[in-house]
């Protein structure tokens, strides 16, 4: 890939004060982001949080009502013709001809993107292999299963490699094998110079791929950071234990408040006596277990682990909604 296609810039994307309103609904409400070149930046959020609208604005498909966006230093409004040459937007569905075969659709799109017939055949062969479409290469699109159709959507989006790629929930509808194939493709794109901004509903996908994550809630950035930085928001560790007598939970709550204060969250499963407690500081573990013994609470199982990204996401969203 030549240097002209992959500009040298610290920031692939910069956005400041983005606002988008539909009617009386302020879908995006003052979002600011900076995405470093050569990284994977993930946008997380519940359904209706504004993820897709944000991606459409960043990808020049929607104009912001307020704020500005720069792609490798180029303003997407004032220099739209330059910015659009640097980006590729892969939505949840690509416009395909249902009556054409997999290969025929890819050929049409390749030629529209400026590839010669020889270049197109070479690239199509690579993509058909990469996305597991060999066995259905001659099938009409209307005869594909949902999973195969999604693979074709993604293959079409990757025909030409751009410096900045937007992927809106790229692995929705794929089986675990297909998801891993897409992950490998994303890693390879970044390794060869691209920057990827993706939305996803799979927390493990964000944890597997992202260099940085922004959690969007009600059209705003609730929190942003690396996976480790976001996990640190919940504390050092998660303590999982099971008490012998589920009726001891009220005493357990008092011990938690005495040792850990109100900073720690606790989940209790009455049927099993299972308890999950967020530990702000791992050093508090010994004090906590001693207090349990002094309170005559018998623990039959105990374990400590790092918080998961799923727990971080749920905590951020629930805390924001609870004020």
Q: What percent of the residues sit in helical stretches (DSSP H or I)?
A: 25-40%
Largest beta-sheet details: 6 strands, mixed
Strand order of the largest sheet: 6-7-8-3-9-10
Distance between the termini: 49 Å
Mean pLDDT: 86
Strand fraction equals: 25-35%
Main location: membrane
Protein name: ATP-binding cassette domain-containing protein
Family: Belongs to the ABC transporter superfamily. Drug exporter-1 (DrugE1) (TC 3.A.1.105) family.
GO molecular function: ATP binding; ATP hydrolysis activity
Written description of the protein model:
The protein has 323 residues and is α/β, with parallel strands linked by helices. It folds into two domains: 221 residues, P-loop containing nucleotide triphosphate hydrolases (Rossmann fold), CATH 3.40.50; 72 residues, ACT-like. Chain A, domain 2 (Alpha-Beta Plaits, 2-Layer Sandwich), CATH 3.30.70. The chain is built from eleven helices and 14 strands. The strands form three sheets. It has a six-stranded mixed sheet with strand order 6-7-8-3-9-10, with helices on both faces. Strands 2-1-4-5 form a four-stranded antiparallel sheet. It has a four-stranded antiparallel sheet with strand order 12-13-11-14, with helices on one face. The longest helix is centred in the middle third of the chain and has 16 residues. The chain is elongated and about 80 Å long. 35% of the residues are buried. Belongs to the ABC transporter superfamily. Drug exporter-1 (DrugE1) (TC 3.A.1.105) family. Its main location: membrane. It holds the Pfam family DrrA1-3_C. Keywords: ATP-binding, Cell membrane, Membrane, Nucleotide-binding, Translocase, Transport.
